[in-house]
Every structure is written in C-alpha cells, then in structure tokens.
Amino acid sequence: MPLLTSPFAELDLLRQPEQANDPLQAFDAADEYLLEHLAEQSPTASTRVLVLNDSFGALATSLAPHVAVLSSGDSHLAHLALEKNLVRNGLAFDAVPFVAASKPWQGPFDRVLVRVPKTLALLEEQLIRLQGQLTPGAQVVAGAMIKHLPRAAGDLLEKYIGPVQASLAKKKARLLIATFEPKPAFTSPYPTRYQLDAPHLELLNHANVFCREGLDIGTRAFLPHLPKDLGDARVADLGCGNGVLAIASALANPQAQYTLVDESYMAVQSALENWQVALGQREVTVRADDGLAGQPAQSLDVVLCNPPFHQQQVVGDFLAWRMFQQAREALVVGGALYIVGNRHLGYHSKLARLFRGVEQVAATPKFVVLKARK
C-alpha cells in the first residue's frame, strides 16, 4: 500500500476493520492537503490542534510528534484505527488523546482540522460545540474530496465560525478555510426526537444517528416481526442505532437480557437515553464496539440486526458480512440471527454459507426479514 507523505511524516497506515487485500487506502488527497496547509502555518510543539472525523488516524498520527493534538469523532472504528496506526508507526497507542463525539472537549484550540463527515448534522453539532473553544485568530479548516463536499458545509462554517475562503482544487480535493470571529451564542438543534406509534415511544436521536428525523423503512419493516416469547434469552441488538429494535423487543419480553452495540458513540448515547426513558432502571448493557468483536463466544441466544451497507462514503457488503460472522461466533448452537435487508442485496445466500438454516420471516416489496439459525 502507498505511504502517506506529508511535511510532518511518512506513514504506513491501515484501514479498520482490516480486510485482506483491501483495495482502499487509509488516507486520501484531502488528508494530504490539510497537512500541507497546516505545515504552511509553521505550528510549534505548543500549538493546540483539534482533529475531527479522522477516519483512520492519518491526520492525528502525522501530527502527534509535532503539535499538541487531540482527536475526536463519532466512530469507535476510527478510534481503533488511530491506536493501531500510532503503534504501526513507532508511537505509543495513546500518544494522541481521543474524545468520543458524545463527550465535550477541553480547549482552547489554535487550529481545527475537520474531515467533512457524510452526515452534515454531525458537522453542525461539532461547529456549535467549538463555541468558547477557539483562541483569537484560530482557523477551522475543513477538507474533503470535491465529490463529497456539499455547498452546505461552507454555509455551516460561515454561520458558526466566521468568513470562509475556499482553496483551489488539488488532486480532486478542496479545503474550506474559516477564520474565527466571535459570534452570539448558538443553541444546538440536537438531539432531535420523533414519535413511534407501535410500540408507543418517543425516540431521541443525537446528531450522527442514522435516520435521525424518523424511523427508517427497513426498521419499520422489521418491527412487526421481531421474535416473540423469548423468556430469559440473552439478546443483542447489533448496530443498534437509537436502540429502537432492542427497546421494542424488551417491552414485549420482560425477562430477556439485552446488549446494545454500535460503532457510533452518538448512537450508543441515544440508545442508552432512550432505553432509560422507555424501560427505566431495567438492566442493560450498552457499548460502543467493533460490532460483536468484544462479545464472548456462544454467549447470546438471539441477535437482531439491521446491517449497514456503507462505511463513510464506501458502499459494499463487507461490514454486513463481518457482522454476520460475528453473530455466528457469539450465538449458542441453536441460537438465531434475525436481520432485515433490501431484497437486492441477496443476504439469504450469504447467510446460508454461515448458518445451518435460513428462512424468510416476512417480506415487503423492498425488504426481507430473515432468520438464520446456528
């Protein structure tokens, strides 16, 4: 794989989760452009730099030996990638402090480097949280490949930070450079909430939660067909989002034990808050993790999953396939994985390669609900 070469370092970087013969690299021209721009500012060891949404640690690992850098984002996989890539390049795994997007930062910062996230609500929330966190004359520099850089990103920078200058394009990447100017205090519009009729719930959603404004159609197709009469089964909601599948299941199965897992810190925060509103102090485990990688083998009876079909801007079934493998490992013999998926994704044949039996529980014109028994 090619090395990331910048004025700060030459790095050998891996993506997370690791994939054999991965054709994709762990950095792009927008990372290179951000690092070149910062180098032109001649930062010193005391320059405080906040790095946001650094998918695989390319920015923070480059900067670690040179400035006081803090990394923050909403991806547990990005945090894992940062730790692994620091070690891979001769640094301590904790050489760069990481703050989950669900937690506050401690500024002030002289420079902020932002990879523009796919969800602009996350960018907006992050820019609002920069209030009171910037030094006079600070710059907030957002970078992206041009094909992934919406006009609204510049509008948000202008609204919350100050005047924005767009760079020239370079290797199909562009920077938006915002110079901080004091503004009146803003109130965040996040979290948002929406109502669910069956079961009757109000669901809270922090800024980066998938389908934040309303129930996604896959989950809507899944909810009426969740398994019943689970007794005291050990159930995991894999890729839990705001927790709706687990909460609906738990309301119908008062003795079952639940574990909710997502790689998004804001999803986990939303799921825990929603669980507490719906189910009070009923015991639950909610954690940010690399799927079920941290789950002991044969420790679950049921796994519920509405699998993702993309990682950031990359579309594919690699993450879903990995989740199915993790579910199989975590389930007891005779345990079952229930999933919902688009018909065209062909999950039935994929599951049949891993599980003893696969049956279709329900179908709509667009979705299928499948049960795979170990």
TrEMBL record:
Keywords: Cytoplasm, Methyltransferase, rRNA processing, S-adenosyl-L-methionine, Transferase. It comes from the Bacteria. Its EC number is 2.1.1.174. Its main location: cytoplasm. It is found in: Cytoplasm. It catalyses: guanosine(1835) in 23S rRNA + S-adenosyl-L-methionine = N(2)-methylguanosine(1835) in 23S rRNA + S-adenosyl-L-homocysteine + H(+). It is an enzyme of class 2 (transferase). The keyword Iron-sulfur does not apply. The keyword NADP does not apply. Residues 201-371 form the Methyltransferase small domain. Residues 2-181 form the RlmG N-terminal domain. InterPro entries: DNA_methylase_N6_adenine_CS (IPR002052), RLMG (IPR017237), RlmG_N (IPR058679), RsmC/RlmG (IPR046977), SAM-dependent_MTases_sf (IPR029063), Small_mtfrase_dom (IPR007848). One of its GO terms (molecular function) is 23S rRNA (guanine(1835)-N(2))-methyltransferase activity. GO terms for cellular component: cytoplasm. Pfam families: MTS (PF05175), RLMG_N (PF26049). Specifically methylates the guanine in position 1835 (m2G1835) of 23S rRNA. Belongs to the methyltransferase superfamily. RlmG family. This is Ribosomal RNA large subunit methyltransferase G. It comes from Pseudomonas donghuensis. The lineage of its organism: Bacteria, Pseudomonadati, Pseudomonadota, Gammaproteobacteria, Pseudomonadales. The gene is rlmG.
